[in-house]
């Protein structure tokens, strides 16, 4: 075993995490389809998908902790005699076992994509109930929404959002790339990032408070399809 091979493995694991995240987004999309179509087995199916999301979150958490442990272990030996590499595996296992023993499955409920899954399902269900009450004659095939109901424009770019995220604190939406860029720039200036929505009192927007808003993303995609048809 060499340090270069360890770093290569860690890089592969990070790529794997990206795939896990994509899979979790796909599960959420399928669940939203069920909500919108009011499938008769919707409740049972969504519970099964929530269980799948939690399993993905658990795997994602394990990878995060393993990567952190390996970085810690390799940093401690990189400045020592390379003979200590033989103890790397044992040390990493001990650190990983200790860290995982202090974690709880209940913590998985706070995983950003688990939070996003629940929020998106709830929002989609509420939207569906509202649409049913209004009994609109101009219902879109997939999602009923008008610009008067939902603002699809990013407060930063002033353009229609592409990958909308929702702030858990103030419930405002932004385009992901734009808000992350703003947060990064403020961090470089050692300043906190205020919510860019005029009148919002949230003076500390953090990346950890942002969750994907897949309901809004689907609304945007639906509007684009309608525009293409016309």
How would you describe the overall organization of this protein?
Residues 122-131 have a biased composition (Low complexity). The protein has a three-stranded antiparallel beta sheet with strand order 2-1-3. A hairpin with a 5-residue loop joins strand 1 (164-167) and strand 2 (173-175). The chain has six helices and three strands. The protein has 230 residues and is mainly alpha-helical. It folds into two domains: 1-126; 162-226, Zinc/RING finger domain, C3HC4 (zinc finger) (Herpes Virus-1, 2-Layer Sandwich). The longest helix has 36 residues, at 42-77. Helix 1 (3-37) runs antiparallel to helix 2 and helix 1 (3-37) runs parallel beside helix 4.
Q: Tell me the strand order in the biggest sheet.
A: 2-1-3
What is the residue-averaged pLDDT? 82
Overall radius of gyration: 22 Å
Which percent band covers the strand fraction?
Answer: under 5%
Low-confidence stretches: 135-148
The total number of structural domains is: 2
Estimate the helix proportion, in percent: 55-70%
Taking the sheet with the most strands, its summary is:
3 strands, antiparallel
Q: Any idea what the shape is?
A: globular
Secondary-structure-derived class: mainly alpha
Q: Return the string of H and E elements.
A: HHHHEEHEH
Amino-to-carboxy terminus distance: 61 Å
Number of helices: 6
DSSP strand tally: 3
